[in-house]
Amino acid sequence: MSSPAFEAFLARLYTDGETRQRFLAEPRAVARAAGLGEAECEALERIDREGLVLAAESFGRKRKRRATGDRPSIWRRWLRAFSWQARK
Q1: How many domains does the chain have?
Q2: Which long-range contacts (CB under 8 A, 24 or more apart) does 6-11 make?
């Protein structure tokens, strides 16, 4: 069940809000329109919908932070962790 088409469709669900909304309204129809097979459509109908939305929102926030550079550097994060440990 890990065909390239299935994996590409999952990636689209996590990254494209419009596709995700259409899928949540009509999962089988949207999956079939994407060219997925019967077994893949059935698996997608059983997907954890709340988990899908939460994960998509989380990935979106991470992409936005990465695109804007609004995240601490690895060194800054390391220094924060080290200074916190030193205070114990």
Answers
A1: 1
A2: 6/36, 6/40, 9/34, 9/36, 9/40, 9/44
